[in-house]
Amino acid sequence: MHRSKLLALPLIAILALSFAAYAQTLPAGVTKVTAVEGITEYAYPNGLHVLLFPDPSKPKLTVNMTYLVGSRLEGYGESGMAHLLEHILFLKTSTGRDVKKELADHGADFNGSTWFDRTNYFETVTASDENLRWALSLEADRMVKMRVEKELLDPEMTVVRNEFEMGENDPGNILYQRVLETAYTAHSYGRMTIGNRSDIENVSIERLAAFYKKYYQPEDAILTIAGQFDESKALAWVAETVGTIPRPARKLEPTYTVEPTQDGEREVILRRVGDNQMVAVAYHVPAAAHPDTAPLEVLATILGDNPSGRLYKALVYNKKATEVEVFEEEMHDPGFVMAMVQLRQEQSLDEARDILLKTVESFTAEPPSSEEVERAKTRILKQIELSLTNSQRIGVELSETAACGDWRLLFAGRDEIKKVTPNDVARVAKAYFKSSNRTLGEFIPTKAPDRAVIPATPDIAALLKDFKGGEAISQGEAFVPSPANIESRIVRQTLPNGMKLALLPRKTRGGVVSVSLGMRFGDEKALFGQATVAALAGGTLMRGTKTKTRQQIQDESDRLKARIAVNGTPTGATASIETIEANLPGALRLVAEVLRQPAFPEAEFEQLRQQRIASVEESKSEPQSLASIELARHMRPYPRGDVRHAGTPDEQIEDLKKATLEEVRAFYNKFYGASNAELVISGQFDPALIQKLAAEIFGDWKSPSPFQRVLTPYRPIEAVDTKIETPDKENSTFLSSAPIRLTDDDADYPALVIANYMFGDSESSHLFSVIRTKEGLSYGVGSQLSAPTKDDGGSLSVWAISAPQNTPKVEASFRDELARALKEGFTAEELAAAKKGWLAERMVARSQDRELLATLLSRERYGRTMQWDADLEAKVSALTADQVSAAFRRHIDPGAFTVVKAGDFKKAGVWQ
User: Fold this and answer.
1) Please, which pLDDT band fits residue 4 given cuts at 50, 70 and 90?
2) What element of type H or E holds 856?
């Protein structure tokens, strides 16, 4: 991470500064607490703690406020209160501020989240003094000046209740919840942060306001500022905003409930509508700060990793299940390790459960090998190291370790992982993975209980007293992601086979570099009837090459500290890499081997096919999936076999069952090649070296068949209204779409982009403001404008989720807002705010490697430069409200919208 300001000064200046002089640069009463790997902690007189994490490599900054309150702090009748309050804090302040509108106007990437030990709010914006001061002012008001009032609570309560209902649709989510409720008999970790319906519906505004006043105070908060900013200014502005909030007179009492040692197996059975079976098991383990946490994390990886994990091999490879997941929840108080297994109806639940328990609880009978431990450590450390290159990600993730007791646990835990030995892993497995500490089974009396005694949470201050951390990660350059600056840096080249390169070299934090490769193949006729085979071919690429097994591919990517993904669709294939400069050549060679030398192992092919069948089967009762398929089938009425056809679940399953490995190999041999491909790289690398390497590994790879883009031209579609019944699902889906004759070169495209932004594509849009904020009908609602390049099959689509009984109201409000937008148009004031927010969002998006690569890939594909983006932004900036309103009216026909809704409407008593 970055050096402190002091270390960045010239040596002579450093020697001239005394500690006293340095201390005087801090605001009055502010003290430096500690510094680890480029992150410095300060304490303010009112109890607030501030973490500064400077990163000049990207022109953005993240302000993240963490409050040390989550569901662990909720009392009887208060379940879900911390989460409900999270929603309230995005509404109105007593000073008249509209939080959501301000966030949208600043083009912020923002969110809030609640978990067992904390609640946090963050916003990422373009780096500037103005934006930092604004964000700090907003968080100061959010801390003590929010309107916690009944008129705001009533509609937001129904939004939260709809979020609760959304979770109720997912059997896996409910099984997770039921296991925890059974595992914890005293401690609040047995309650999910979403709460229960009765508490959500009946919480009093007085009790909620008291909860807000009690916990939302400076001495219960940790403020993190990460990104490109001046540290001295930031400290001063914090002192002028959040730092002026007085420390409250009340004293927060620490929680003292300790979960009793479990004294026997526990079991819970969940019976609900669904298509796939699941089994889960949980074991109590120590708190995050305990020394056993590191070997437990390695143990969880050895068990659950895909594909090397013992459970994965015992269940998925042996065709006893389709999915396995193992995770360790590290928390402030003693937490848990849970394993979840999914299997199809025809697979044996009893057999899967027995294999699960035997594999986990007999771990000591087959101690972990050095290879298993080192592989797991390498994988875990890779994830940590790559995360540390992203200041936004770490700025938010510090909320988790801070809530566990101290933010430095992130680094201390990493160092402990490095020390883990096979003996450590075997020891913790023996200590905690025993039947009497298990939540799954039934009660069996025993004369000699063998119990797992969970150690108390350590004294974290003593634990970290002398902790120094490692060296800070190298800094990157201050990069401005404007279209002109990006274009000026791009190095382009076309390889002999036709593959295009677009290279954007720049200094990045930790030398990180990102890669995106896209290739296209086939045509409408050649691809007919090949969609399923093509998807299976793409899905099998990463499962083995002619010289490497699936496990060896994963091991090599871990050794290279690279996140690699390769996949294929019916019309093309994609690959992505995130790694560091030194390992980029190796990662590119690995991707080239995966793409050019696939082995298509029979066992891996069969696993993939079974997993995809299970995934489709799981979707057969889900409202969102069924509604999406039905809408796609109506809006794209292509015959079965056409790659544009949207298959029903039964059609998809039938095609998956019929597909053969021989067909998959034949598809690859017929279509895969790089003559119609683009390779885009952004980050820290040597362009000349990569150009030479790309020519070596891809330059002679020609496409064996001609390519012609499959078009989706405009066609008028008769509007229909379709209702799908999904019994026993407490959340419904509403979808609507209308065809538009539009390309992204159309003269009206800029106007429609900003019109859609105002209508439904932002948090201050018409649909969001009415359906979510005002009426509280939906947790999520929005619109999307689709305008292809060189293809006129555009559309405007709207989506929302809600309780089934509220779906008619959602539909009515959508139609009302559409009619109002068409009749009244958009105001000049509304347009000005939308332009500012839209432009800021694009700037922030281009500072994110994934979004920037996607943009560059698209531009290269269609022979465009970043000037296209600059022109689009200039056109949007020049628009008037009358022009936008007129374009919206020209293209949007309210009578052309097809509607599809799916939910348990019969139970709700609507549309009978």
Assistant:
1) very low
2) helix 849-861
